[in-house]
Every structure is written in C-alpha cells, then in structure tokens.
Amino acid sequence: MKFKNKLSAILASVVLMASACDSFLDVNENPNNPEDAPISGLMTNSTYETALNIFRGGSATSNYVQYLASPNPGSSSDIMDPSDFSGTWFSLYNVMTDLDVIIKKSEENGANHYKGAAQILMALNLGMTVDFFGDVPFSQSFNFETVTPAYDDDQELYRRVLELLDEGIANLQGQTSISMGNDDFIYQGNVANWIKFGNTLKARFLLHTKGTSAYSESELLAAVNAGFTSSNDDASVSFFEQRFNPWAQVAINNSNLLLGGWISEQFVEALDGTSYPTVDPRLPLMIGTTDEGEFVGTVNGAGRGNAPEQGARSTLIPGQFYTSTQSPILIATFAELKFIEAEAALQNDRARAYSAYLAGIEAHMDMLGVADAEKASYLADPSVSMGAANLTLADIMKEKWVALFLHPETWNDARRFDYSYKNMTLPENLNPDLNGQYIRRLAYPDSEVSRNGDNVPSVTLLDRIWWNQ
Amino acid sequence: MKNSYKSALLFLIGFLACISLYAQQTVSGIVTAKEDGAPLPGVSIVIQGTSTGVVSDIDGKYSISVPNTQAVLVFSFIGFETQRVPVGNRSTLDVSLATETSNLDEFIVTAFGISQEKKALGYAAQSINADEITKTRQPNVVNALQGQVAGVQVTNSGGAPGQSARIIIRGINSLDPSADNQPLFVVDGVPVDNSTIESNGTPRGMSNRIADINPNDIESMSVLKGAAATALYGVRAANGAVIITTKKGKSGQIRVDFNSSLGFDNLAKLPELQDQFGQGFSGVRNDSSFWPSWGANIAEENDPNYVYQDNWNRAFNTGMQFDNSLSVSGGNEVATFYGSFGRLDQEGIIPFSTWDRTSAKLSGTVKASEKFNFSGSFNYTNSGGNRVPHDRFLERMMYWSETTDVRDYINPDGTMKTYGNTNPIYDARFATYEDNVNRIIGNINLNYSPTEWLTFSYRLGMDNYSDSRTEITPGPMGIDGEVPLSSTGFLEETRINSRDITSNFYITLKKQWNSDWNTSLRLGNDVFERKFDRVTATGTNFVIPGFYNLNNTTQIFASQGKSIRRLVGFYGDLMVDYKNFLFLNITGRNDISSTLPKNNNSFFYPSVNLGYVFSENFDLPSWVTFGKLRASWAQVGKDTNPHILGATFVSPGVFPLNGQVGFSRNSTFGDPNLRPETTTSVEFGTQFAFFNNRASLDVTYYKSNAADQIIPVPISDATGFSSYITNAGEIENRGFEIVLGGTPIERGDFRWDVTANLTTNQNEIKAIREGIDQIVVGSQFGYAGSRVTMILKEGQAYGNIYGSSYIRPGAPEGTEELNRDLPVLIGANGFPVRTGNQLILGNAVPKFFGGLRNNFSYKGLEFSFLIDFRAGLEQYDQFGNFLSAFGKQKDSERRNDFVVFPGILADGSQNTKEVWLGQGVGPDGVNYGAGYWRNYYRTTSENFVKDASFIKLRNVTLAYNLQPNLLERTPFRTARISVAANNIILYTPWDGFDPESFSAGAGGNAVGFTGLGFPGVQSLFFTLNLGL
C-alpha cells in the first residue's frame, strides 16, 4: 500500500534522525576559550598583571601615605573609611592562579626558568596580599578541594613567601628546557636579572619582619648583596601605545577635568623646603604646578575648598617620569634596595647605612633625570648629607618615601614607622571609627565576606598584621 | 550526518506537500443572541475535534467548510453558553446562543497551538484576549500580562523606551542568580527568543526580545503554568510557557483595521527631597564644590545665583509614544490571509532616550483539501533606539548641584556647561548607545489527515535576528577649558547574530471507541538549535575629535563570543476522555541536550494529570452550575548553557601587546559531571461556577521542587576560580492561586464584570550541595560598608537580603535576622553603633500578589480598571543610600538640629546624650566631621532595606464604540475611541522612585535591588480603532 510506504519512510527518517543525534549534538566544545594555554602566554599576562597589581596597590594606599589627596572633602580614601577592595583582591588571586598553573606546567616539562620566575612573582603577589590584609587563604587555594578555603596565619604565609623566593632563585640558577623571551614583560628573558629581582624582593620582605623575632639582619644583607647592582636591573613593565600607563591615564583624565591624582600638601611641603630645609630638585619632575608655577598641595580629607578644578593645585600631570603614556610601572628598584640596606645596616654598620642612603637618593635622582649640578647641590646640603654618625631612621624613611612615589611598599614602611614622617598629620574628617589613629590594614573585601564569610577573620581597620604588632 | 538529518526533513516536507485535494461541504448561517435575537458578531465556530474554525461577522453571519455530514460545529462566544450542533445534510444552520456569565467552556490554546477545551484540562491555565492585551497600550506584550493572570508576576525593569520587563510564573524556580527564570514564549506554535542582552558597560535598559512582537497582531495569550502544562515543550519551558496566538484572516469580506494610539509618559514617583540647602560642604557655600547639597542654607544666602533649581522635576521630559498599526485580513473557505504593518515611536522621560519598532506581518492558511491544510506566517521587525545610560543618569543627577540648573548643560561651542561635575543631560545626549535589531520570525505548519483518526503535523520555525549596536563616548574636542565625558573617547561596535530553528513533527491518533471513551495519542519529535555570535570591537583615543569610526582610534581591541546549543526531544501525549466528565492526560518526553556532559545528556520526564467534572455525576444544589477537580503530577528536566563545562583559559581583551598574547585561567569552572536539573511539581485545583455561571471560582494549590539545580556558585577568588557551575541545590515553591469571577450586575444594556486573582508564594531553599555553605545571588553597592548581598542558605527563603545594621544588644547570640524592635546600642559619642556583621534585613520575593479587573459596559460605552498589588517584600533602596550621602533627602533638612538618639548605652541605661546632626563643629563646640548622615546613616544597610509593597491602578480605560445606527452613516464597520491611564501608584510605603523598577535587567534574578535604574513612568493614552 502506498500509504504504508509513506509511513515506513517517516519511521525510517525518525530512526535516521536518532542515529544522527550523536554527532548532531556533539557541539559543546568551547569555541571561545581554549582548554589549554602555553606557559609563555600565561607568563605574558602574569608579568603584565603583576605590574598592574603594583599600580592597584599604589592607588589604594597613596592617600594613606599622603602622596595624593582627594580634591573632595571627606573622600573615603583620604579619611581612611573602609573601602571595598574586591577588585584588587580578585586581581591578586587571579595572577596567583595563573602563576600556580605555570609552576605546575613547567614542573612537568622541566621549564625551570619559567618555574623560578613564576615562584618569584607568586612570592611578590602573595606577600603584597598579606601586607594589605593579614591572614589570607593560600594553603587551600588553587587545588579546588574546597570552595571556602581557610585563612592561613599571616606569619606562616611570610615563611612561604621567603621559601618561594629561595626556590625561585634556585630554579632560575639551574638548567631549563624552555627559555623565556619577549613573553616576559619584566626582563624579556634576562635570567640574571630575575635572580637579582628575587633577592631584592627577599630583602624587601625580610625588612618587614625587622620588628619581630623572626628577623635576621645577616640574612637580609646577604639578600641585598645578591640583589640589584644598578638601576638598570630594576624590575618594571613599560607600557604601550595600545595601553597607556595607568598613572598616565590618571593624569590625562585630571587634565581633562576628570579629577584625580591631586598631590597631598604633605608631599609638596616635604619637598618644597617647608618641612625640611632643602628644596628638592625632584619636585618639578614628579608633579605639576599651579597656573602661577607654584607647588600647592591639597590637605588630605579637606578637599580643595574654594580652589577651582584646575590650575590652583599641584597634581600629576601627563608626560612626566611617572605619568608618560609609556612610562614603566616600577615593581622593585635599585633605589629601594639601597634604602632597605641603609635601614638594615643602620644599627650595626652606620658607614654602610649612610653610603646606601646616599646611593638610594642618587639612584632615584638619576632615574628622574635630575641635572648633575642640582643633584650635587641637594646632596651637599647638610640636612641631606648629615654624615654617617647623624643618620637616623627618619632620614632614611623620608628619602625612601620620596623615592618610592606612588608605590604600595610605602604603606608598609609607613605602618612600620608608625606614620611618624615629619609634619604628617591625620587627615581632616577622619573616619570616626579609627579613634584618631591611622589605618593599619585594608578591610577584607565584600566578595570574601559574602562568599567565604565563615572563614573571614573578624578585624577592625586598627588591627595590625603580624609584622606590625 | 548532519546532512542526512536535513535531507530527512526535506523528504518529509516534500512528502507532505504531495497530497491530493478533496471536495468538501459548506455550511453557513447566522448566529443570534437568544435573549433579544440580535446578531452576534465574533462568535467562534469550530469543527469539533479539530482546530479548524471561523468567526461570525458583524451581522452574525458565518460560513464554514466541514469535512462530512458527521461533523459537529461548536459555537462559542464569551458570555454565552457554548452549543454543539451536528451538521447533518444541512447547508444552512442558524443558531441562537443563550447568555452565560462565565467562560468555563472556553477553549484554550495549549502546547503546539492546540486548542483544548478548558473543561478537559487537568491543570491550571489562564488566557487573556486581544482586547485585554491592547487595552493597556503596552508596547511590550509582557507588560500586557501585568496583574491579569494568577501566578504570573510581571515586573518592569524600568520606564525606558523599549526596556525589558520580566515575567515569572509561580515564583523563582532556580537558584542560579543569572538564570532566566522566565517562561518560554511560543508564537503560533513555534518558540521564539525572549532573551535580554544587556550592554557591556553601564546598564542601558535593553529590550527583552519579545518586545519585537507587535501586540496589535495578537489574538490571545495563554499562560501555561505548571510543568504539566509544558511537558511537551521540554527543557526550554521548565518555567512555564506563554502561548501567543496571532490574528488570522477569517473567511468572508476583506477587513481592514486601523489602530492609532498616542501616549504620554511621566515620572511615576519621586522621592522626598530637601530644598533648603545648596552646593557646598560643612554648611559652607561653594559654587564649584563636588558636593551638591551639603552647603549653605539657601534662604539665608539670599542670592539669586544660589537658589533651589528643582532639578529632579525638570531633568525629566514628558515621554511620548505614537503607535499606529494597520491590518488587512480576509479569505474564503479555502484560504485566509492576514497582513499588518505597525510602527511605534517612543521617546522616554530621560532626555534623548528613544525606541522605535516597525513591524510587518503576513500570515495565511490554505485548506488544500479535507485531508491537507497548511499555514505559514512571516514576521519582520526592525527595532531599536538610543539607550541612555539611565543608571549613570540618576547617579549624575545625584552628584549634580541642587543650586545649579541641570537643564543649562551645553555651551555654544558644544562643550559641556558645568561647574565641575558631569552634567547628566549632556551625558545622556552625547554618550550614546544605539541598537538596531532586524528580526525575522517565520513558520510553516502542515497538517495531513489521511484518515479521520490519523493526522501528521509538521511545523518548522525560524527566529533570526541581527542586533547591531554602537556605543559612542566622545573624547575632548580640543577646546580650552572643556570638561569632556572621557579623556580619550570611546567607541564600541557590537554585532550580534542569533538564529533559532525549531522543527517539530508529530503524529496524532484519535479514536472514539464508543459513546463513553474517547482517546487521543500524540507522538512526536522536536529539534531545536540556537546559534549565537557576538563580535565586539572597541576603539579608544580618537585622532580626529568627533569622527566616530574605529579607523580613527589609536587603540583597538576586539573580542568574540560564539555559542551553539542543540536539543533533540521525543515525546508522547495520551489523552483519555470518559463520558466527557473524566479526563486523563499522560505525557512523557526524552530530551537530549548538547550542553551537558555526554554521559548525562539524555533525560526522560513524565507527567500525569486528571480532571473530574463532578457536577455531572452528583446532584449538587441548583445554584452550583459546574464543579470540577483537578490533580496533576509532572516532572521536567532542564539542561544548562552551552560551553560551560570544565576549566578553560581566556585571552584578556587587552592583548596583543608588543605582539604578545597573554592568557589567563578563566575564572569560571563548570563541573564536568553536571547532571540535568529536575523539577517535580504537584498541583491540585478545583473550579466552580455558581448561579447559572454568574459567578465562578478557581482555586489551585501548587508545589514544585527543582532539584539538582545547575548554578554558577560565586566562590572565593582564592580558590583559583570565582564561579563554580555545579548541581548545587534544591528550591521549593508552593502556594495558592485563586481566581474569582462574576457578573454582579446585568440589567438591560448595563453589565458589570469582575475578575480578581490572588497568588501566594512561599519558597524555601531545601538543599545546597555539600561543601557550599551559601550562594550569593547578587549584591549591590552601598557607601562605606552598606553594601547589601542577596544570599541563599539552606532552610531559608529565596531572596533574603543581607547587610550591615546597628548593634542591638538584646539580640540572641548567633541570630541571623535583624530584629528592628530591639533597642539600638548608642555609643559614647551619642550616635548609634553599627556592625558590619551581615544580618538578614528583608526578603525581596513578594508573598502575595494579585489583580482586580472591573469592566462596566453600557451600550457602546465601556469603562474598566485593573488594580494590581504585591505585598510582603523588602528591597534595597540604593537611591536612598546615595541621597543620604549627598544630603539630598528630605530628612536632612534637620541638619542643624540637636537630637537624642533613642537606644541604650553599653551599660544598659537609656541614652540621653544630645548630638548635633550637622557637619563640622557644631554649636556645642564638638567637631562632628562629615556629620550624622555620612558617618552613621549611609554606612548602615538597614536604613535602606524597606517595604516595597504597592497597590497600583495598573490601567483605567474609558472607551466608546460607535453604535450600529451611527456606524451605518459612516464607511466604517467598527469605530472605537478610548482613553487609558496606566501605572498610577495608589499606595506604597516606599519612598524612592517607583518600587517596581529594579537594577538588573529582566534576565537576572537579583530583584531585591532597586535604585539607580530608569525610574518607572505613568502613562496616558488616547486610542482610535477603525474597522472597514
């Protein structure tokens, strides 16, 4: 029967459909994101994002250390209100996640240099996270055995940071199956510099522990000796035509009246001869002037008062050392290392401390391109070259504060130094919960409070992290 | 393999097309009302057991072809009793219908566009007709459902032109914060896309895609609520389905209908604002201050340059919409057609917000023979507009000085006129985001009945759209002293292409075994595919100012997102009818989805439902006209989104840099062992009609459990991922739906009809997967620790809002819920002490909602109103948080007062300390810093989580239909003029903008966060309908 034929044809086509199903439905492979990525691509992003993490940290803390001040009164960054740093937290862990992948992958294929560099960057990002927040998750991170990782003790984590640096240096000193190249945005594959960088970071983190029983001066000075030998070794990422330096962007925005990057009165007065006897020749190379060519800062927490948006206050301006579109973000510098050395040696080797102190100033001035004559005249001033016998921690801290402009490391210094920079005062409209004291840590981010709330330690902004007790 | 599938389909189509034609018999007649003998236009005449039918014309005349002399014609019309008349050998069949008040015997369009007698349904379903749809003049058909259907909650995401509206049936069924809990939309038997794709950056209030459908083309909408009603549509209808039937041509004279409507929108509600203090800080006037209203007392200042500008009333325009549509329809016994054009132009209340829609539709049916008929339709829509950054607009309004005219926003050279802050109107005008959607929806239906008991049906549907979006933020013009919107400028070109194809083949077997038993079996195969591709190119830093082309930017980044999802389903549906009072329906379906892991991607789910019309068996009191019981049990499976399994890597958009492409691990991890979700629902209902159908009552109890929910659980970034997609939990929804109808008065030409519906909903998170303590649905910013988060925890209800609060010493240890009745702890400084501990401050899911419609008619005059309400919910008022940060709320007029905060001190004694509310040093010599509102009020979430209930006059309409004696003197068949008003808030304790607007678009579940979204509007419409 004709009809039966038709019916069986239909049934046949239904069967055909069913058998075709398997391949018809096999379309779920991700067309947008690959399942694997090369370690070189991961290194590119990790070096780039680490530099941005330095910027993010600097951006979070520059008002606390009074490099910058808000043009608006009562701004939360000035008055040390609790702010939500979920974004910064994510960025820190995002880089650490990728570094963990690099470490595991390079272990499998013997790419020891990648592994070593990744360990150094891991130490840096983890150390920064601890310095901001204190106890943070790490030992239960990245292995995905729990979605609510426990918080590790901050002192324990410091041990891990130093271990990672030692392991990283050792791996970089060994053989590798694959060498780094232009995928490394920090050193373009220069392994010797990576080793110095590892040692410099070791010195930085050891210095944080100075007030604790874990501190070893000899270990620190050994790291200094193996660290940067000149500013040519500095760890930095230069920015791109395609992507401007983020501080440059702040300056460009401000020049277009999207306000930001206003300089604290504290910083201006430290360099313009008000707080200290000398006028610092670096000032015009770091920040802009008013329309009248003067340096006028903004009082933290007070806002700009009746001053207009432009022309009456010093701000970051485009095109200077820190604010050119392709300026580097400095991760660690020779200048910083010299000040670390100065502080470490101050107690037992004043001569070494003093010469390191002067070398630190000089390195920073050279970096900015201060004219030789101006540099010489500044260094000749008795308030600067007070001699080894008269050198104090305050002198070192002040010069380090200037040399690490916009760098988050300064907040660590400030907390260790109890914010006792000369003439530094609490911001106006200070957060009343701080009871007239300076902020000692960042609040845990909202994202952690809502996602991992049971593990988040209960702390106030006045609770100090382990090395700052 | 794919080809063989396609060729099989082609074969099928070809096969079905080659059927010979048969002759048929035509019956015609006139339908009149029994009461007065007047002809009845609009009566539906359907051949029993088929979906074939016609409608009587203005004179009550009809004409229909019937297959044979055994055919039975069913005459039905709202307000009249349905009659079934066997045709026999007659060619003329005049029928007079008796009035009834309830429409219990009404047919309802269910799955696959099959018209079913409501009486036979074992589950709750409700429909609304064309009249009720177009009465509110809503350009978006989703809004037309507002308050009209029990169990259906429609929420406007805001009042922007074309902005999405969200529809939820019987509560939120998914724990997935980003899950689209909305029902499947089906137009003429073919599912269509109703997704909302928000903009990448600041929210722009994009449309849900069903907005592309012209409501004037719709004949009726049925809402299928439970899983029972939707088992046949499979996974995509797990949240219910809205079945839209479009208008069809009717045999007889050619008809031309013209509708024109002009509407005006205004801000529905404004928060209470202070008007006493101007720009500045600490009570000091400063005309260039960032702070818009912490300055001096305006009256004391007494300066014409420092006066309150009433910006909030003046920043918004009167919105306008102009909607015109023209349709032509007609046909004969063999073929019918319907064609329409529609054009809607809309301007929103935020300046420069626009949306327009142009639509054209052509559909036709051909009855080639008694055995073979086919139909098809083609719908083209072009829609889009300029989507203003509404969230940012209100944020900038917030920052804008209350003593500077916001309307005076532009300098003669085109730069922004400002004292420093960005002017919201300038931003709305120049920071544009335009979308342009071209969409084609088409379908073809073929039905072949080789014998009386067997029908083969095939439907092929396509829904294809391209969405082309351009976002422009101008950079500096290079004019001295200008304040640009961006220092580099920004251009983003987005191209979205989406194509849905649905193929559905089914066989229907019908058998009348004897006079008692009647069965119908349907077996089918359903295939769905969605291909989606989105390409975005972003350029920044314009070389030539004002020339907006990617070639003119120095920094260009591109990204692409593609997806493909395929589903294959096989299903069966058996209906058994015993003596027309007992109805049993059993369904089963197996779906295979491309999105799940291969070993878990096939899943079967059954359903069974029973309807029992007991009034036909028992002797009930004479005032009970009709009584029925319903019960159903159903399961439905659900798959997930495509391409989410496993861990992947992404290349961040910033690369390449220096020729290097970086990679980073994707922060989302999809469980490789994902299983399909299963929702099991149980429903019991009863339906009564009383007093000869003058009153009716329908009560339904429902309970649904959605288990193995696939949820992207936000997890600690420290794990290496931020989001983990897994089978994470189970949610239960239960409640009652009550529909009450009646005709309290019917006397002569006067008639009053009432319909009321009420829905209750309770839900509970039954389980969350081990290892996950809680699921964060969403969170919204609040200043200085007042951020709120919607968190799901086992044993709690969906929608709890967590945030910071004032310390209440009497609260039991470990309590999670804030008890606002306890006294607040007051600190030594005299101010309340806050805690960052996250407590439940409220719940955002309404416990009750419903509507009440009243229709009055007298001759040609009609008056109707629809009231809807919701109650038992709280929302976070972000707007209030901002107001208190900027000193704009009414309450801040107290800023120079001293108060004693009620509460207790740490030692338990009552607080008696007097404090000043202002900023800086108070009259008492104490320095109060930034002041009470900034330091103690805005920092605490509990101040902003508030009751968001409302009662709204959703619609009130007054219409006049020209009477026949007048119409005779005009060329028109019908003429109607009406005036309608929408969305008039009658009552709400909420003191922000319209509490109905929420921040997330229609796609998201974080409904508890209102605030800076496009404020809701109220509207007034004038409409003219003419028929030729």
What can you see in these coordinates?
The complex is a heterodimer of chains A (469) and B (1028). Chain A has 469 residues and is an all-alpha fold. Chain A has a domain at 37-189 and 435-469: Alpha Horseshoe (Serine Threonine Protein Phosphatase 5, Tetratricopeptide repeat), CATH 1.25.40.390. Chain A is built from 17 helices and 2 strands. Chain A has helices spanning 2-24, 39-61, 76-79, 86-109, 112-133, 154-173, 191-208, 217-225, 246-255, 265-271, 283-286, 334-345, 350-368, 372-380, 393-403, 409-416, 446-451, and strands at 235-238, 328-332. Chain A has a two-stranded antiparallel sheet with strand order 1-2. Chain A starts with a helix and ends in an 18-residue tail after the last helix. Chain B is mainly beta. Among the domains of chain B are: 20-97, Immunoglobulin-like, CATH 2.60.40; 108-268 and 316-389 and 431-772 and 849-854 and 983-1027, TonB-dependent receptor, beta-barrel domain (Maltoporin, Chain A, Beta Barrel), CATH 2.40.170. Chain B contains 11 helices and 52 strands. In chain B, the strands form 10 sheets. Chain B has a 22-stranded antiparallel β-barrel. In chain B, strands 10-15-16-13-14 form a 5-stranded mixed sheet. Chain B is globular, with a radius of gyration of 31 Å. Chains A and B meet through helix 1, helix 2, helix 4, helix 9 and helix 17 of A and helix 1, strand 28, strand 32, strand 33 and strand 39 of B.
